[in-house]
Design a protein that fits this description.
The chain is of the alpha/beta class. About 40% of the residues lie in helices and about 10% in strands. The protein has 30 helices and 20 strands.
Length: about 775
């Protein structure tokens, strides 16, 4: 203490100072000064033991702060102090203003309020009497605090309840603004200046759009996605001007509140209404991220006007007459009172419309004898010009883009999607993404492979970050092609990395393979997300013979199965081996464990740890050869039960395939697999939600996953062996669940419903 200025204020003769110094010693000095040792006096230990946790926190806050920053064994470990500090509490008094019942209440856990009030840097950065201050504090914990205070294992639970309720009833179809968002705006002068009072349509729309583009990234502790806006906002109306083309109600509401748009677009003019729609298509949707609308069917609507009303004296489509009436330059050149003038106007339109009116450039005008050349009912209609939409020739069907010939999960996803579409009689073709990828070793779908797009819908079975690589390495034409693009993107973690930017805007909608993944994508806000189950189909086992794989004939065999390309830190095979050894000790006749691994690197530390743990254990067998799809199924079928103590899964295809084979599974009770893994269909293993450390996984910052409890897994393994009727019952229920919800037939029905909605231009 004589040589440390930072310790000068402490007096070792005073009990409070002595206790504080001791915990400082436990946290840092024990390692800094390894040649010294310090143990508390017996009377000091007795003093600490007799204190209840609340008194300890109140009377020795500095000591508790030091204790929080260490993971070393401590004299406080028996007091369960961490549990006390994890309690949500309005503490101290400075937190109370937003804890009133009407506030909606976002209480902090006691430890976080404690740390914040003890540290000057945090106290000056976070005003805990405000919602924004608390949210900033929660973000600090998720990004930094959990690393500084490793003794506390805590993940922010979802914030909901009253905070998500509308601040006040919406009027005039205005979108709802949740209470938390209204409160954030109320605490931030910059947002108040940008939006104004939140009682107008545009101000609320601006507020929600800010949340989609910026707010959800500034306040990651709040996981909230904008719910679907009222259907009435998208209803096409003439407006007070009563002109054509019809505009969606939300556009009219925006125009009514924006003088700049009123000055730019006279909605009494057909051409300027087209210009207003073009403004939305080019700029408006970037200003109002909360609204996802495109004038996809504008050309069809203009053509329909022509069909529904009799021709005027010019015999021209009504839209073309209105454009000519709005433009003196056209009237000066083309005399609509003469057949030659009208014909020249039509030629001008067909040649230049795509340049001057790109939104309706696909609308071509032709001279016909009737409204429909093939319809006898219209045979007596006089000859006239008719407008028809002429597309680029894509027929209805689905282009699947990915690695369909690759022997990996992504390849299986693409192949299975094709199988599903074929079952529903949907035309389908498979395209290998034109970029570096896995070897093309799977030839079962060669007959479906194409080098170019054939159909009007594209299903992209690639990870979302690969969209950028696809654009850069030769697939830009696939992205830019006028097809309805669906991102069938696998993802495994609870949050979407900011590093991915707006890649979600490269597709028209996203198909999420589980509720877990759907919740991640839904928070992106401005791209529709649909949960679309993945089809699970395994070929019937042909030769499930254990001798083929060098496995013992008469043992009950558990198995692990994983691909090293999928990050062993996430697959967590080490926990599976640990659970087996903990369940059955060093010697247990009648049981064995098989580890089926592929693409593992000898220098991978997780794999090295697995090899070290299994060394010398004759019950544990490793199969590392590359297997065909049929051989892989035969391997699975010759084993008895599957173990997946993963830390996170987007879906869990191998789990589902094992269940489809009628096998019981022992699995982590977290992430995508919980859609079909429930207490009656699987042996579940709970665990602690823990933050990822740097290097655990790609884009680990701010992420968490589940660390399954090995002791629980071991109990489930023993339970499976000891209770054969239970094992059989759960296995049968699991198989039935997969057949009901994830069979090719079930998924084909789900695909067909969504594709039909797309074909009819509906958004469900």
């Amino acid at each position: 203490m004589k040589f440390r200025a930072d310790l000068a204020p402490f007096n070792s003769k005073e009990l409070d100072d002595r206790v504080t110094l001791y915990f400082w010693w436990e946290m840092t000095a024990r390692e800094t000064y390894p040649d010294f040792n310090w143990a508390l006096r017996q009377e000091d230990l007795e003093y600490l033991r007799q204190l209840d946790n609340d008194t300890l926190i109140d009377q020795h806050p500095d000591a508790v702060t030091y204790w929080l920053g260490s993971t070393a064994p401590s004299v406080l470990d028996t007091k369960h102090l961490a549990e006390t500090l994890l309690e949500p509490i309005s503490w101290p008094e400075l937190l109370e203003p937003i804890d009133a019942p009407q506030s909606g209440n976002i209480p902090l856990p006691r430890f976080l309020a404690f740390i914040t009030t003890k540290r000057l840097d945090l106290r000056s950065a976070f005003d805990l009497t405000t919602l924004t201050g608390r949210l900033a504090c929660l973000s600090w914990w998720a990004q930094h605090g959990h690393r500084e205070y490793k003794r506390i294992k805590w993940i922010q639970p979802p914030i909901g309840g009253a905070m998500l309720e509308p601040e006040k009833p919406a009027v005039d179809d205005s979108p709802h603004v949740p209470r938390f968002l209204s409160q954030i705006v109320g605490e931030r002068p910059d947002l108040q200046a940008a939006f104004g009072p939140l009682h107008t349509f545009v101000s609320r729309l601006n507020c929600l759009s800010w949340w989609v583009e910026h707010g959800q990234h500034q306040y990651p502790a709040l996981h909230w996605a904008i719910p679907p806006l009222p259907d009435t906002l998208f209803k096409l109306e003439a407006g007070e001007q009563g002109a054509l083309p019809l505009l969606p109600r939300f556009l009219l509401l925006i125009w009514n509140e924006r003088p700049d748009l009123q000055a730019s677009f006279n909605l009494n003019s057909f051409s300027e209404r087209l210009g207003f729609i073009s403004w939305w298509d080019k700029h408006g949707h970037d200003e109002y991220y909360a609204i996802k609308w495109t004038p996809t069917h504008l050309a069809e609507e203009l053509a329909r006007i022509d069909d529904e009303q009799p021709a005027d004296d010019t015999l021209l489509p009504r839209f073309l007459t209105m454009i000519a009436n709005d433009r003196p330059d056209l009237r000066e050149v083309y005399d609509l009172n003469t057949a030659d003038g009208r014909d020249q106007l039509v030629r001008w339109w067909n040649e230049w419309a795509s340049t001057e009116y790109p939104l309706v450039g696909s609308l071509k005008v032709r001279w016909t004898d009737s409204a429909d050349d093939e319809a006898d009912d219209d045979a007596h209609e006089p000859a006239r010009y008719h407008a028809r939409v002429e597309g680029i020739g894509y027929d209805f069907g689905v282009n699947i883009i990915g690695f369909p010939q690759g022997v990996l999960g992504l390849g299986e996803d693409a192949r299975m999607a094709a199988r599903v579409l074929q079952l529903s009689s949907t035309p389908v073709t498979l395209l290998n993404a034109p970029m570096a990828g896995p070897a093309r070793l799977e030839h079962s779908v060669d007959h479906l492979i194409s080098d170019e797009l054939k159909y009007n819908i594209s299903l992209i079975c690639l990870p979302a970050p690969e969209m950028v690589r696809l654009a850069l390495e030769g697939g830009r034409t696939l992205i830019d092609a006028p097809t309805h693009k669906i991102g069938a993107w696998p993802w495994e973690l609870p949050h979407w990395p900011n590093a991915f930017g707006n890649v979600h805007q490269m597709v028209d909608e996203i198909w999420a393979q589980s509720r877990f993944v759907q919740s991640v994508y839904s928070r992106l806000g401005n791209t529709p997300v649909y949960q679309m189950p993945m089809a699970v189909e395994v070929p019937a086992p042909l030769e499930p013979k254990r001798e083929r794989f060098g496995l013992p004939a008469n043992e009950f065999l558990f198995y692990l199965m994983f691909d090293g390309n999928s990050w062993l830190s996430r697959k967590n095979p080490l926990a599976g081996v640990q659970a087996f050894k903990q369940a059955f000790g060093d010697s247990s006749p009648g049981v064995g464990l098989v580890i089926k691994a592929m693409n593992v690197r000898d220098d991978d530390p997780v794999w090295r740890a697995v090899l070290d743990l299994v060394a010398g254990d004759s019950r544990i067998h490793i199969v590392s050869e590359r297997l065909s799809r049929q051989d892989s199924t035969d391997f699975m079928a010759c084993c008895d039960a599957y173990i997946s103590l993963h830390r996170s899964e987007g879906f869990g295809r191998v789990i589902a395939e094992a269940m489809a084979l009628g096998q019981p599974v022992v699995v982590t009770n977290f992430s995508g697999n919980v859609d079909f893994c429930e207490p009656d269909t699987a042996f579940l293993v709970d665990g602690e939600l823990v933050p990822l450390r740097p290097g655990d996984y790609l884009f680990a910052e701010g992420q968490y996953w589940c660390d399954p409890e090995v002791s629980i897994a071991a109990e489930q393994l023993k339970r499976m062996i000891d209770d054969a009727p239970l094992r059989e019952r759960i296995a049968l229920a699991g198989k039935a669940r997969i057949e009901r919800d994830y069979s090719v037939e079930a998924v084909a029905r789900a695909y067909a419903r969504r594709l039909n909605d797309i074909a009819e231009a509906k958004t469900i």
